[in-house]
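Re: the request from the purification team.
They wanted to know what the chain is likely to look like in 3D before they choose a buffer screen. I agreed to run a prediction and write the result into the notebook, where they can find it.
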Amino acid sequence: MITDASLTELKAHFKEIQISDDDQYHPLGNSGKVTIFPKSEQEISTVLAYANTNKHSVFIMGGGTKRGYGGQLEKADILLSLAQYTGIVEHNPGDMTITVKAGTSFQEIQTYLAPYKQKIPLDPYNPKHATIGGIVSANDSGPKRLGYGAARDNVIGLRMVYPDGMLIRSGGKVVKNVAGYDMNKLFIGAMGTLGVISEVTVKLRPIAKYESILFVSFSERNIEEIRAFAAKVLDSMIEPISLEILNPSLAGKLTNTNQFTMLISFDDVKSSVHYQVNVIRSIVPDKTTLRSLTQNEATSFWDNFYHQQPNGLTNETTTAAVLKIGVVNMDAIKILKEAELIADACHVSIEAHGGLGTGICNVSIRGANEDILSAIQQIRKSAMNHGGYAIIKHLPFSLRSEINVWGERTASHFLYEGIKQKIDPNTVLNKNRYVGGI
């Protein structure tokens, strides 16, 4: 526990590190009685070693977009902010890899890479503020996961600071690195419960010469027709970067068409994109509306898309929640259809999209507190009935104490507990932030 004496000791111990004594309440929780802003990996190590020795709890924050993602404690003793730990460490244009500090925003990295005509092949939400460390810790991804993969597919190396301050490295800085176990996957998606990511090495991808987006809107809410068309697209020789179904509310917000709408995007050389667009035009079902966006329009659309989801930085007048759902890919249509019925029954508004190639759905819910909790429970039940899962990506702290963020524990939970106990026996890092309250 942080006392006045502890605060005095902290300020004396970390003279070179900016310390903020902030005891204000935040509606999303995951705060700290004291906030420390390290500027180097060694300073991160020093803070964690100090916290581990003195049994102080530590929360980690990058840009703050995922502040409402997990966590059953309002405040830790120390909030470790990586806001000042930013920058490019190493870029190898020929090898198409880049190493960056964890507090660097995703947009800053992409802007740096643009003159080299390269990019990180990830598409997280809120890219202007989301940091690469937070994206990797949450294994965040968007609709382009179908073509790009997730963080687990693109991260080739990590530098980590263990809860006791020890520095470790997993993976490497070259793409063809296959020796030993892939330890990166242990930390990617672990929500910062096993260590603080200090550096990330990622594979790069050339920026596509051309991009186009197609919208196929279905006038009648016929699930089988949507499913049949999606299967035809997936079975064809074309390779869409994303294949998403938008529910009427989200489609209306983004495309001004309040119908179930399929979003199909391509990026490649211009001739390849045009060829694939023509293939789609030749197989669209009757009684559908087909529209397309050109290069500049597509860029503007994605910018709106990635900032429409509630997050830790948005100020909403009503309570908002976000669910991430995983089901068999074609069942994404059923989830969105059932979510429409649940929205009416629970008196909430729902904006949702689901990956018809990945089965990953994102559902944003807005309304009164009790209505949102009821909707979450019913949507989770629907996902489980389809053999899937539903976790809460964003929810105010007061409501996270009333519902299980991660869902029911699985039979493998003891493995997670064992790993956490081995690496962080004093439960220093991000306590109760991961599956089962780990």
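For the purification team: The first strand starts at residue 18 and ends at 20.
Please add any questions underneath this entry.
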